[in-house]
From TrEMBL:
<comment type="similarity">
    <text>Belongs to the glycosyl hydrolase 39 family.</text>
</comment>
<protein>
    <submittedName>
        <fullName>IDUA iduronidase</fullName>
    </submittedName>
</protein>
<dbReference type="InterPro" id="IPR049166">
    <property type="entry name" value="GH39_cat"/>
</dbReference>
<feature type="domain" description="Glycosyl hydrolases family 39 N-terminal catalytic">
    <location>
        <begin position="1"/>
        <end position="329"/>
    </location>
</feature>
<dbReference type="Pfam" id="PF01229">
    <property type="entry name" value="Glyco_hydro_39"/>
</dbReference>
<dbReference type="InterPro" id="IPR017853">
    <property type="entry name" value="GH"/>
</dbReference>
<dbReference type="InterPro" id="IPR051923">
    <property type="entry name" value="Glycosyl_Hydrolase_39"/>
</dbReference>
<dbReference type="InterPro" id="IPR000514">
    <property type="entry name" value="Glyco_hydro_39"/>
</dbReference>
<dbReference type="GO" id="GO:0005975">
    <property type="term" value="P:carbohydrate metabolic process"/>
</dbReference>
<dbReference type="GO" id="GO:0003940">
    <property type="term" value="F:L-iduronidase activity"/>
</dbReference>
<keyword id="KW-0378">Hydrolase</keyword>
<keyword id="KW-0326">Glycosidase</keyword>
């Protein structure tokens, strides 16, 4: 029944538009004999019979799986690699198919209240998971996995009394003490950090973390992801940009220890009027949850209290500052656990943006 349903969806979407992508199964892919639906679908798409066309094999534009961390960041990647290696072994013809993990969450159970889901701990862990995939998988020359998409299952609305501590991007307050009742949303650090991720460019460039022992590591408490954006020549208002995104994360744990990090960024192109801005998140300065708790955790914050809570939503921002003439940017930053730090560098564009029209 499920395989016929898959064939029906495939053919219906193909009839609607050949441009539409279709795949699956969006499940756990535990090792055999577990997850029978997952493995049966791959077998069907590999050499089964299409219920509607009678052809051998059914299209599979991507393989979607769900691998979560159980509180660990690296465990997500380890499970993905193990599952895809098993897929490539059993179905070598699917080795080049795109792989999606569209539920790469640090822990199962969206509604389970966890204090670390409320603050920068969760935000830093999201950055860490992405950086691990880029540095430990996609940047490797011998990588055989067509890893195409990583996302989180976090489109939920929190409910009383766990406003901040569920797996959500915002804290929802149902203001039932007003007439009419209404809803107030507070942005959590995990959503703020996704705004910082949007500043990354399309091309990853080399970056590494060296400890006091001069050892390079991509899996420590502190990590980095660097990228550049090359402007479109047809868009004179576009400009060259670089972003260095750093995190301090011990997964879902916090610590009172503070590390001082020296950032050395080199090899900037010779472009005019290069400037940089820094963005910083930690649990002391950018923690709406902490502000709310210090108020006594009110169910119905007043407008003044909401303003105080929201004052902690945005990252601490500094700049813009000019990039030194020699093209070497050196900064020092204290990193508690957790923390996120982004340096965004850009050159002056050739022209101002065009007038917005036809909105």
């Amino acid at each position: 029944g499920f395989l016929n349903y898959y064939d029906a969806c495939s053919e219906g979407l193909r009839a609607a538009s050949p441009l539409l992508k279709f795949g699956g199964p969006g499940d756990s892919f535990h090792p055999l004999p577990k997850s029978p639906i997952c493995w049966s679908l791959l077998c069907h798409c590999y050499n089964g019979t299409n219920f509607f066309t009678g052809e051998t094999g059914v299209r599979l534009d991507y393989i979607s799986l769900h691998k979560k961390g159980g509180g660990s960041s690296l465990y997500i990647l380890q499970q993905e690699i193990a599952a895809v290696e098993q897929i490539q072994k059993l179905f070598p013809g699917l080795a080049s198919v795109a792989v999606y993990n569209d539920e790469a969450d640090p822990m199962v159970g969206w509604s389970l209240p966890q204090p670390w889901r409320a603050d920068v701990t969760y935000a830093a862990m999201v950055v860490k998971v992405i950086a691990q995939h880029q540095n430990l998988l996609l940047a490797k020359a011998n990588n055989t996995i067509n890893y195409t998409l990583l996302s989180n299952d976090n489109a939920f609305l929190s409910y009383h009394p766990h406003y901040f501590t569920q797996r959500t991007l915002t804290a929802r307050f149902q203001m039932n003490n007003t007439r009419p009742p209404h809803v107030q949303m507070v942005r959590k650090p995990v959503l703020t950090v996704m705004g910082l991720l949007a500043l990354l460019g399309e091309k990853q460039v080399f970056a590494e973390v060296k400890t006091s022992e001069s050892e390079s590591t991509h899996n420590g408490t502190i990590g980095v992801l660097a990228s550049v954006h090359t402007p479109d020549e047809r868009q004179p208002s576009d400009s060259w940009q670089a972003a260095l995104l750093m995190y301090s994360s011990d997964d879902n744990r916090t610590s009172s220890s503070i590390s001082t990090v020296t950032v050395n960024a080199t090899h900037f192109p010779r472009l005019r009027e290069m400037v940089y801005v820094t963005y910083y998140l930690d649990n002391n300065q950018t923690n709406p949850y902490q502000k709310w708790r210090k108020m006594g955790s009110p169910d119905f914050p007043s407008p003044e209290q909401f303003q105080q809570i929201r004052d902690a939503e945005d990252p601490v921002t500094a700049g813009p500052f000019p990039v030194p003439e020699g093209g070497v940017l050196t900064l020092k930053q204290d990193f508690p656990i957790p923390a996120v730090f982004l340096i965004h560098v850009c050159a002056r564009p050739r022209a101002v943006p065009d007038q917005v029209c036809a909105v």
